Amino acid sequence: MSIQNYKRKHGFEHFEPKAVLFDMDGVLVNSMPLHAVAWNRSMASFGITMTAEDAYMTEGARGIDTIRHFVKQQQNKDITLEEAQRMYDEKARIFATFPRPRLMYGARTLLRTLKQQGLQIAIVTGSGQRPLINRLLHDFREFIDEQHLVTAYDVSRGKPHPDPYLLGMEKCGTKPWETIVVENAPLGVQAGVASRAFTIAVNTGPLPDEKLLERGADLLVPSLTALNAHFIIHNS
Predict the structure, then answer these.
(1) Which pTM value belongs to this model?
(2) Which of 65, 95, 143, 181 could form a disulfide bond with 199, CB atoms 3.0-4.6 angstroms apart?
């Protein structure tokens, strides 16, 4: 039923998936609890309050965009991209002191299912933390390569704008009706929907389902394991 609604919403005659574009944090890597702490501590050093809920609600956006937003909101001033980058570097430094985050449960199994079904796999992340990205490329090297990667540095407008996912489609050579986006964050879901890809929300965090559904998710599942079962059932 969700596929029919999706086609109707965008006026598409067909839905023929050829690629799946994954967000990284909170989808393939269980890193969001650590990111929330790093955001809180780093921003506090600059006089900015950023709660765990703030971290989850702004997840997916480019870090420098998130910082500029909160500085403007709380200190009523505009800072340059260079100033925001310096603040983001402090957040990344703090994150790097934490234990290595685990891969999300069920991630490998899901990617293996997708690969067996002949689908391309790509990562579209708002992260600019290269060590975390490199680790993902290593751990999932049988599924993902550098050519199927979009990071914060590849676009001038990050999520919730559709640009990151449109670039992901360009790298995969697919159209919206041939693309599935898998997200866990409100801004990421909004970006996927804006790109007109079929957007699946995986609610792996503390936000209520409504926060993801109200951004237009075409399908919502509670875990990657549930999503894997969904792919197996609909392709058996």
Answers:
(1) 0.91
(2) 181
What is the spatial distance between Cα 106 and Cα 174, in angstroms, rounded to a whole number?
Answer: 26
Residues annotated as part of the active site: 23, 25
- Give the residue from 112, 115, 133, 114 showing the smallest Cα distance to 124: 133
Q: Where are the beta strands (DSSP E) in 158-230?
A: 179-183, 198-202, 219-221
Strands (E), 138-178: 149-150
Query: Residue 60 has what pLDDT?
Result: 87
The 10s digit of each residue's pLDDT in 139-164 is 899 999 999 999 988 999 999 999 99
| SS3 state of residue 54 | helix
Which helix (H) or strand (E) covers residue 42, if one does?
helix 32-44
Query: 32-44 vs 81-96: helix axis angle to the nearest 10?
Result: 120
Q: What's the pLDDT score for residue 234?
A: 64
